[in-house]
Amino acid sequence: MTPELPIRRNTILLASTMAVFSAVVQLVAAVSSLTFVLVTGIEGLLGLGPAIFLTASALTALPAGRAMDRVGRKPVIALGFLMAACGCFLTALATQIGSAIAVIAGFALMGASGAIALLIRTAAGDMYPPERRARGISLVLFGSVFGAILGPAVFSPLFAGKDLEADALTVPWLAAGGMALVALAISWAVRPDPKVIAEQIGAATTQAPPEPPAPLREIIRRPGVIPAMVAALASFSVMVSVMNLTGYMVVNHHHHTQSDVFPIIGAHVLGMYALVLVVGTLIDRIGRSPSLALGLAVMGVSCIGLLWVDSVVGTAVLLFGLGLGWNLSFVAATAELADRTAPAERGKLLGFNDQMAALLGASLALLGGAALETLGVAALAIGATVLVTAPIAWLMRRRRQAAAEPGLA
């Protein structure tokens, strides 16, 4: 790696965009279900709001990943933040005029932007060699820790003492749109493009011209890709569905105030990112497969705990654990998928992975919303636990087989 590459500067800038955008994500997680219900008046489909967000994310992820491989990471990331701002402003308009079309369009734009923001980890993986890749990804994701603090600091006061009506949501959504524009400005300062850095690192390491990118179907068949994707699908889909239904659960089932939701979501985001530097180092040390299984297990314990806990503090602790388990499995899966790809293939594979995860998350949000409304919190807790822990035994069995047959690793 040549010393002139401004890896540290780009890492700080990308981490800063994650800090700002994670605060916006907290608003989406806390009030997307409530916003949809209050604007449309349809309570029976409370999971439809998050499902719109996640479906749009799924439809965007693979095209965005392919675009990153063709034109670079920076232009696509900047476009994502612009879409986030437009989505927030449209949603704010919907809360004033009561338009279902506007709120659906706003959620769709924010979902698309969320897919692109998640692909920032592609840029993070570009800038570090394989032996330090998990830590490099962690350094960028660590910026979201500050977002965990920023979100409650900005949004909780905006809800304090307000009646839970649609027009009370206007100012928070406008503030979120402004924050997305700040993230756009920060991302535009990244240079050179992280994909350029990845190509230079690859050239310095291999001393050979790069091979043409392989088709997606061939990449998926490479050893280690499918186990990483299975873990990523389970962890991401369960995490986003539970996170997006938490606001409704806390207010309508546990009978707390809307302002109580933001400390809980803040604790969740803190769990997702606060220990990410330790997590990245741990993953590089103990390996990808054990980290995937451990992360899913921590998520399972956190989900089943929702059966018995209904206080604000207790729910915050469980959501912290959900975020921490997701962090372990997510960073490990990302590092594994990045290890198995060249720079010109990386965005495509991660985008496909995110597409599948978001589609599954959208389905779980719809099912979880219906289960929460008709059967209660127990159905959501048990269902999420089963889904997130189901792959653990298979992952560990494959690890033992890989140890015996190195070609399977």
Detail the topology: elements first, then pairings.
Layout: H1 7-40, H2 48-71, H3 73-97, H4 100-118, H5 120-126, H6 133-141, H7 144-159, H8 170-187, H9 194-206, H10 216-220, H11 225-253, H12 261-273, H13 276-286, H14 288-304, H15 312-339, H16 343-374, H17 377-389, H18 391-404
Helix pairs in contact: 1-4, 1-6, 1-7, 1-8, 1-11, 1-12, 2-3, 2-4, 2-16, 3-4, 3-8, 5-6, 5-9, 6-13, 6-15, 7-12, 11-12, 11-14, 11-15, 11-16, 11-17, 11-18, 12-15, 13-15, 14-15, 14-17, 14-18, 16-17
Describe the structure using short key phrases:
409 residues, Growth Hormone, Chain: A, 80% helix, mainly alpha, 18 helices, single chain
Beta-strand proportion: under 5%
State the distance separating the first and last CA atoms. Answer: 27 Å
CATH topology: Growth Hormone, Chain: A
CATH architecture: Up-down Bundle
Counting H and I runs of at least 4 residues, what is the number of helices?
18
Radius of gyration: 20 Å
Structural class, from secondary structure content?
Answer: mainly alpha
> In terms of per-residue confidence, which ranges show pLDDT below 50 for 5 or more consecutive residues?
none
Task: List SSEs in N-to-C order.
Answer: HHHHHHHHHHHHHHHHHH
- What general outline do the C-alpha atoms trace? globular
Helix content: over 70%
Main sheet characteristics = none
* Name of the CATH superfamily: MFS general substrate transporter like domains
CATH class: Mainly Alpha
Number of strands: 0
Whole-number count of domains: 1
Mean pLDDT comes to: 83
